[in-house]
Design brief:
Shape: globular
Largest sheet: 2 strands, parallel
CATH topology: Rossmann fold
Strand content: 5-15%
CATH superfamily: SGNH hydrolase
Helix content: 40-55%
Oligomer: single chain
Radius of gyration: 15 Å
CATH class: Alpha Beta
C-alpha cells in the first residue's frame, strides 16, 4: 500500500502537493513496471485519516477527494492483478472519512492491533497461489 504519506504532504510544501491524477499515474507506472518484469502486483486502497493526530491538519476535504479518486481508480481502473480494499475493511460506515474506532490505534492514521488483523483478514490468500 503506497500513497498515504504522499497524500498527507507531511512537510507542508505546496510544490509537493499531489493531485489524484499524479498519484494515479504513479500507481499505474508501478503496475506496468512490475507486470513487465513478470511480477504480480496487488493494489491496496488508502485508509481514511480524518482528524489524524500524528500530523495535525494533514487531512482536509481536498485531500479526502484525492484519496477517494485514487481509491476508485485502484478498485476499478484495472491496473492491478488484484485489489485489496483496506479502506472498506477499516472505515467507519457512518463516517467513511475515518476508521472505525475499534480499528484505530488512537492517532486516526494508523490501525490498532485489531485493525492490522482486520487488514490481514481482508486479503484473499488465494491471490498467492
Amino acid at each position: 500500500m503506497l500513497g498515504t504519506n504522499d497524500l498527507r504532504n507531511r512537510w507542508a510544501k505546496p510544490e509537493e502537493e499531489v493531485s489524484a491524477d499524479q498519484m494515479i499515474a504513479g500507481l499505474k507506472q508501478l503496475a506496468i513496471r512490475a507486470q513487465t518484469a513478470g511480477i504480480k502486483i496487488f493494489g491496496a486502497t488508502l485508509l481514511p485519516f480524518e482528524n489524524e493526530t500524528f500530523l495535525p491538519g494533514a487531512w482536509n476535504p481536498e485531500r479526502e477527494r484525492t484519496r477517494q479518486a485514487v481509491n476508485e481508480q485502484i478498485r476499478d481502473g484495472g491496473a492491478f492483478d488484484a485489489v485489496i480494499d483496506f479502506d472498506r475493511a477499516l472505515r467507519d460506515p457512518e463516517h467513511p472519512t475515518s476508521m472505525l474506532p475499534i480499528y484505530d490505534c488512537g492517532d486516526h492514521l494508523h490501525p490498532s492491533d485489531l485493525g492490522y488483523n482486520k487488514l490481514g483478514d481482508a486479503i484473499d490468500l488465494s491471490l498467492f497461489d
